Amino acid sequence: MAQERENPENQQSAQKPFSQREPIKHLLIGSPKAVTSTIHYLQAIGYAQVGDWSPLLPTDNHDEVMSILIRQILIA
Fold first, then answer.
1. Rounded Cα–Cα distance for residues 44 and 38 (Å)
2. Is 5 part of a structural domain of the chain?
3. What is the pLDDT of residue 15?
4. pTM, rounded to two decimals
5. Domain residues for 36?
6. Rounded to an integer, what distance in angstroms lies between the CA atom of residue 26 and that of residue 39?
7. Which residues make beta-bridge pairs with 24?
8. Is the pLDDT score of 13 beyond 90?
9. How far apart, in Å, are the Cα atoms of 25 and each of 43, 60, 62?
10. What is the pLDDT of residues 15-43, one digit of tens each?
11. Is the dihedral of CA 70, 29, 59, 34 positive or negative?
12. Could you tell me if residue 35 is inside a domain?
């Protein structure tokens, strides 16, 4: 009676770790109007809610702000 061997592809898929969530940071830097407009656009296309972004924070450059969004994404 011949021994059954496992398909190498099945072995590899069985050894793959489970998907994990990992943070990714989005940083918008620009004029207050440009940053706010982009945040609203990203909400309009369903990517992130306005409230998910940090408040506008001043940078060292005159009339420039930044806002950050941290999302959790699945990594396979």
1. 10
2. no
3. 57
4. 0.71
5. 19-75
6. 11
7. 71
8. no
9. 16, 20, 24
10. 556 779 999 999 999 999 999 999 999 99
11. negative
12. yes
